[in-house]
Amino acid sequence: MAETNYGLGPIEVRDQFPITFRFLSMTPGNTKPIGDGVASLSYHFVVTNTFLNSQGASKQIDDSTLEAGLEPSDFYDKKTGKPVPGYHNYIDVESHYQRLSWKYGLSENLEFGLNLSFISLIGGTFDHTIEEVHRLVGIDNATEFGAYRSNTKRDQYHFFVALEDKFLVASEEEIYTAPADPVLDFKWTLTAGNDFLPAIALKTSVKFPLSRSSDTPEEEATNEILSNGKVDWGMAALFSKGFQYWIIHLGWSKSRLGENDGFVSELDNRYVTFELRHSEEASTLFQFMSIGSVYPEIEDISGVHDRGNVSLSRETEVLVLGYKYHSSSGWTGNIGFVEDFSQFSNQTDASLLFEIGVTF
Questions:
Q1: What number of CA atoms fall less than 13 Å from residue 73's CA on the CB side?
Q2: Which residues lie below 8 Å from residue 216, measured CB to CB, with a gap of 6+?
Q3: What φ, ψ does residue 141 adopt, rounded to 5°?
Q4: How buried is residue 19: exposed, middle or buried, by Cβ count under 10 Å (0-12/13-18/19+)?
Q5: How far apart are CA 299 and CA 144, in angstroms?
């Protein structure tokens, strides 16, 4: 096949953990340049289920607690009644992430991109499906590996993150198709590689805060969830190498956050993608992503119960299975499935995605 070091590229999906929507999260990318004077427009949609309950083992949070409204004290140590060091969460969210991406080739090797995203955070309808899949594979929804899902009702919206005796996030108002901060991308392909060396590209991204109305408490709460109000920027190094019908893509990225809102100041992500070429137009992808936690490490973890701080600060391993089709006429389509298999209570459960686009 021609251009054996490029392929169709990895699945360009960002971290879907609800806390990270306010920050810049770099996506995997193809080393292949779009070409001088060439443009593309694409629509990307991801539906994600997230259910986390750091108090699941102690059963401190149940339906009656949720109906009364969560308080920071609901995350205290059950025996002592005192705050527990570090971060704790109760997150029951279905997110719908939509992204419009426009790319343009400034030269043969330099590419510019603009990404406009819209986010919904709702109760959704995904919980039943997730729990049935758990049962099919032998996971008990009343246990740690089942995220203690059976402790509370399905398909609700509750988004709470506590740091000791205060809330960093406290939301029970669903959000529908709200704009996230726009992101500008610049990618420079350094080399297409050869039989021995990989193709190499460098990418930088900048997130700019939107001017947002905060006339009501609801608008202010939505703004805090979807934007940190500052400029974030990131860098990524991308590599790809062809081996007959296989292309291996590697990448590393770091995002520096203008305001961390009580979380980490940098986000580090890595990925490796194995692309099986069926033809010049179609590929199946097996993608493994190591996603840095949004929760910083806590030095003093004495008295921490359940999984607590130790798990929340770990990076998680995420599997992406996808299929890409890029027609010779310029139309493109991608589908994919995302699953967190680390289960450290600091990442989403599962996502479904699709993308359609055109190059002209």
A1: 5
A2: none
A3: -70, -5
A4: buried
A5: 24
Residue-wise pLDDT tens digits, 139-154: 877 776 667 787 888 8
Secondary structure class of 191 (helix, strand, coil): strand
CB 310 within 8 A of CB 49: no
* Residue 197: CB atoms within 10 Å: 12
**283 is written with which tokens?**
């590929």
Gap between the terminal Cα atoms of the chain: 23
State residue 49 phi and psi, 5-degree precision. -105, 130
Question: What is the C-alpha radius of gyration for the chain, rounded to an integer number of angstroms?
Answer: 21
CB 294 within 8 A of CB 313: no
| Predicted model pTM | 0.93
Query: At residue 5, what is the residue type?
Result: N
How many Å apart are CA 120 and CA 68, to the nearest integer? 24
Query: What letter represents residue 292's amino acid?
Result: G
Dihedral, 81, 87, 93, 97 alpha carbons, nearest 10? 170
How many Cα atoms within 13 Å fall on the side-chain side of residue 41? Answer: 1
| Residue 40: strand pairing partners | 103, 359
Residue 175, helix vs strand vs coil: strand
Per the document, the length of the chain is: 360
pLDDT per position as a tens digit, 303-323: 444 444 457 888 899 999 999
Quick count: other Cβ atoms within 10 Å of Cβ 295? 24
Question: Which residue's entry shows tokens 């901060």?
Answer: 181
Q: Residue 307 corresponds to which amino acid?
A: R
DSSP classification of residue 149: G
By three-state DSSP, how is residue 257 classified?
coil
Give whole-number Cα distances, 197 to 133, 209, 240, 249, in Å: 43, 39, 9, 13
The three-point CA angle 87-96-334 to 5° equals 115
